[in-house]
Design brief:
Elements lengths: L17 H8 L7 H11 L6 H11 L10 H14 L3 H19 L1
Length: 107
């Protein structure tokens, strides 16, 4: 089942335009940044590398460098910058090692 987003700011890298909306709200944005980034990550299509998507978004929205926006919007940008430096290969390897460690600990 495919989800159809009605936001005019929807893109493959920003499903539903959630990141756009946060940046547009700027300092008026009050929700927890971690919730937004988690929601954004979960909305990305299967197989879409969050690091690559974050890098493209940061560039497209003009926040790849420079000072962070004020408030929670700045924390969202900070987290996307961190995500952009953590390629999917590393993430999947890290998660795999974590699962293997848990299995060993359960024995």
């Amino acid at each position: 089942m495919a989800i159809k987003y009605t936001s005019p700011h929807h893109s493959e890298d920003d499903p539903g335009g959630i990141i756009h909306d946060v940046l547009e709200a700027g300092p008026d944005f009050q929700r927890p940044a971690e919730d937004i980034v988690l929601t954004w990550t979960l909305r990305l299509a299967d197989g879409r590398d969050p690091a690559e998507a974050a890098e493209r978004l940061l560039t497209a929205y003009g926040v790849a460098e420079g000072p962070l926006p004020a408030g929670a919007a700045g924390r969202v940008v900070e987290m996307l910058r961190q995500a952009a430096t953590y390629p999917g290969e590393r993430l999947h390897g890290h998660l795999r090692r974590k699962r293997e460690g848990r299995r060993r600990g359960q024995r």
